[in-house]
Amino acid sequence: MLKENSQKQVDDLGSRFTEVFIKQSENITLLLTLLEEFDFHVRWPGVKLLTSLLKQQGPQLQQIILVSPMGVSRLMDLLADSREVIRNDGVLLLQQLTKSNAAIQKIVAFENAFERLLDIITEEGNSDGGIVVEDCLLLLQNLLKNNNSNQNFFKEGSYIQRMKPWFEVGDDNCGWSAQKVTNLHLMLQLVRVLVSPTNPPGATSSCQKAMSNCGLLQQLCTILMATGVPADILTETINTVSEVIRGCQMNQDYFASVYAPSNPPRPAIVVLLMSMVNERQPFVLRCAVLYCFQCFLYKNQKGQGEIVSTLLPSTIDATGNSVSAGQLLCGGLFSTDSLSNWCAAVALAHALQENAILKEQLLRVQLATSIGNPPVSLLQQCTNILSQGSKVQTRVGLLMLLCTWLSSCPIAVTHFLHNPANIPFLTGQIAENLGEEEHLVQGLSALLLGISIYYNDNSLENYSKEKLKQLIEKRIGKENFIEKLGFISKHELYSRAGQKPQPSFSSPDHMMFDHEFTKLVKELEGVITKAIYKSSEEDKKEEEVKKTLEQHDNIVTHYKQVIREQDQQLEELKQQVNSLKSQNEQLQATLTQQVSQIQQHKDQYNLLKVQLGKDTQHNSSHSDTLQMNGIQPEEISKLREEVKEWKNKHDLLQGQLREKDSVIEKLVSNYCFCDYCQNEVKALSEEKAALKQQLDSSSSTVAILQDEKSKLQMISWCFWLIRIRK
């Protein structure tokens, strides 16, 4: 006690001295100037002094530094100091400087703080680093938390990608040091700062996509399914994954595909739900799993459908080899642990959130209660447990589930009213004067009864809107009913739950309300109050208005469908236009090429005409030469016939030669060495030689004739050109 008092006195004295020192802003300006000195014995004490002043009178000193020329820039230079002592103390100084001051945070960020701090973290070994890494992470949190401008700058600068190596863990995760646990915990919190539900939706969405694209989400899921990870890191990892996937369809689809490395492999969602409904697991871990499940289903109709489908009769695994999410939720809903009841009820309510189709489908779920008894519907089983007088936490959870299920679903309301025991039970709960601990149950019972009136389609004559309102007036009283309905929003735990989506409770006993349910209460409390006081005539008018609105909605839906189809057709036509444009471009290119070739041919033709013009004067001499050589067209024809005849002879001789060769080879191959055969071979060889000589002679003659033929063709071509020119 004495130590505490003496420390307080020292702090008060330090605060007074600091106040005196900073009254003259010149003192701070001088101190900032001294920090530019490279001398260690000047710079380091200056850093320590300024840090101490900021601890004592932070806001006042921040304003002085903010208006000082280049004040923040001078302090940023400390991060580039090669002496680690000054650099590390510079990080601590900037921590104090950036606390709760958005203007200074922006200046520090634009002075390249992110780049420098991430470099230091990498140099120090990421999560395996020492306390310097922790200090850098705390400074990064100061710069990013609740600062949308800096968050956007961090994302646009591609710094999210540099966070991925922080979460690379090996297979052996035993024996983590306390510093590593602290570092990793801060790293996970930094990820959550970027994707917090309190950030602007657009900023959160872009960060979520960046984390998926760079592989950061995949790395977090690896930690989630790894073995040997400390419990508090596992809990924070679950919370981090929750916010990275919340409301992002792409990330939610990826998370649905993650499997745990078990035998047989199970979906990560199933493994997490097993922990949630296991009463032996730590309370904070169970809360984290519930939050993860809620974030997976947030604005995810596809995921909601997959969860509900595991409860429907057609999809249940009859072999019992695998446990589904639906079976785990039902098991938790009807277990003896009230916390499991509450978590399962809230999880199932999120599977139905704003999804009327699934609310109707869930009415088909049948449960086998005991051997020999017929199955009962899930809705009936919930009301049965409700009426058995279980723990308050269990009843609150079931009432929240029923309120979510029946809201905006008249068919579910009809099923609920079809059981004659339900309405008497609710009116009995509301009418009784019970203790304060039962106020929540009474308020939720009033809400459920109000939903049964507001969403009633009057299909059951005994439980129509008018009959139920008369029952309330007779058994409870309208004022008393409204008072009991108000118990919900006046409760302290209701106010806490409405602050943020993450379930955060100091103890299991305080786990009563869900964040999304508080939104439903705000939406329905006023309309139910109005519905209770409305007369039958007003109800009729409202029904007519509803029918008119439904007709309008149907018309709008029809036109939306038409517009959708037209958009699809327009898209197809656009694709066709693009295809035709591409074909047109190709044809244009071909046409250009062909025009170019035609132009080249024209140029060659014109050149040839010029050359023929020059040679015109020699035409007569060419004609005389032809006459002198005695070459006439008749002779050309005759030469052609001779060439043809010699070719035929040549081919005949070649055939005979091949025949003789064949006979000689046959005789040789048969090894016939008698005198007759030898003489025959010799005669054939001589005959072959003679034929070859004739063949060579004819080949020579054919070559001469072909040469003459070519010359005659050239002369004929020249005559043709001359005729063209004339």
TrEMBL record:
Domain Vesicle tethering protein Uso1/P115-like head per the UniProt entry, residue ranges: 251-532
GO terms classed as biological process: endoplasmic reticulum to Golgi vesicle-mediated transport; Golgi vesicle docking; intracellular protein transport; transcytosis; vesicle fusion with Golgi apparatus
Coiled-coil region(s): 556-604, 636-708
Record key words, sorted: Acetylation, Coiled coil, Cytoplasm, ER-Golgi transport, Golgi apparatus, Membrane, Phosphoprotein, Protein transport, Repeat, Transport
Any one GO CC term of the record: Golgi stack
Gene3D superfamilies (UniProt xref): Leucine-rich Repeat Variant
Subcellular location field: Cytoplasm, Cytosol; Golgi apparatus membrane
InterPro entries, sorted: ARM-like, ARM-type_fold, P115_Arm_rpt, Vesicle_P115, Vesicle_Uso1_P115_head
Name of a matching Pfam family: Arm_vescicular
Membrane topology of this protein: Peripheral membrane protein
Keyword Acetylation included in the entry's annotation: yes
Record's keyword annotation contains Membrane: yes
Family, similarity comment: Belongs to the VDP/USO1/EDE1 family.
Classification via PANTHER family: GENERAL VESICULAR TRANSPORT FACTOR P115
Role this protein plays: General vesicular transport factor required for intercisternal transport in the Golgi stack; it is required for transcytotic fusion and/or subsequent binding of the vesicles to the target membrane. May well act as a vesicular anchor by interacting with the target membrane and holding the vesicular and target membranes in proximity.
Record-given protein name: General vesicular transport factor p115
Organism: Crocodylus porosus
Gene name for this UniProt entry: USO1
